Structure formats: C-alpha cells, structure tokens
Amino acid sequence: MLEAGDLYNGRIVRIANGFVFKEPVFNYSGDFPFVWDEIVVPIKCGSDYDLARSILTDTAQEVVGEYTESARERWSQLVKAYRIEPARVDPLVTLIANDNWVELTLRYVVHHRERRITKDKLFTRVLKAVDDSKGRVGLASMTVQLVEAPPLDVRLSRRAAIGKE
Asked: Cα dihedral angle (59, 60, 65, 66), rounded to 10 degrees?
C-alpha cells in the first residue's frame, strides 16, 4: 500500500470480490502506467510572469519530457481500444491571479512510480531558476504575525463581585 507521498509503507491490502463491483478500483500499472500530476507555484504580484512561465515550461521539458512521447503513444492506443477522447500529454502551464499572488500551475504526465521523485526534481529546479532570476521572479508566501494582546485589567466593583444586593 502507498502512503500519501506515494511511498510504500509495507502493508498489503486485500480486496474482497464483492467490493470490486461496488467501488471503482484504480490500477496505475495497467494499460496506461502514467498519471497526470501538478505542481502549483505562487509568484509575487509584479514579477515577470513570462519569465516565470518560461521557467516552468523549460523545467518540465527537462524533467518530464522523456515521458511525453511514451505517454502519447500509449494514450493513442487507449483511444483506439476504448474509444475515448484524445488527451493532452504535453506539459501545460496555466496562470491564475488570486487575492494574494499569481499562481502558476504546471500539469504534466509522469510514470506512476516516479511521481514523488519527479515532483522533487521539478521543485528543486524551479526554485533554483527563481533564485537565478535576480529578483525578476519572486515566490509569494503568506506571512501571519501574531501580536501579543495587551494585559487585560478587569476591575469589578464590590457590588458586582458579591452580587447585586
């Protein structure tokens, strides 16, 4: 069985036959051993968004480019065999703006056994490229400062302390 990080934890799961007909069963190692995955990178407002997009696109090409052609061929076979729609397997970068920053999302295809290590490679290279941009692209983060409350001084009159007589 896999943990949240897609790493084996040593447990073995048995699935009763009756369960197969009640719930979908996902098999990542069947006809299409690839999965679509994403990383989201928050970018400071005012950054060079074209450069940020280029950083993600170039990084994806370097890290997951090898999967793209294999995934395209395998997906093409599935389209013919199961009469499903063609799907985009090339890396895709999309941009949205929210209240705090601009979010760039990189969607890519990766072999199901390589998700975690691929995500690590992508983030490592993206962070280095952002650092190398000399401030043209900045990572956004939310900073919350908790301020100590001033001492509370409660004074009750004698009547309030005893109860109204």
From this structure: 90
Query: Cα(84)–Cα(133) distance, rounded to whole angstroms?
Result: 42
At a CB cut-off of 8 Å and minimum separation 6, what does 64 contact? 91, 108, 109, 110, 118, 122
Helix 49-82 / helix 115-132 crossing angle, nearest 10 deg: 160
State mean pLDDT over 128-148. Answer: 92
Single-letter amino acid, residue 90? D
What is the mean predicted confidence (pLDDT) over 70-92? 91
Share of the chain above pLDDT 90, in %: 58
- Pairwise CA distance, residues 71 & 74, whole Å: 5
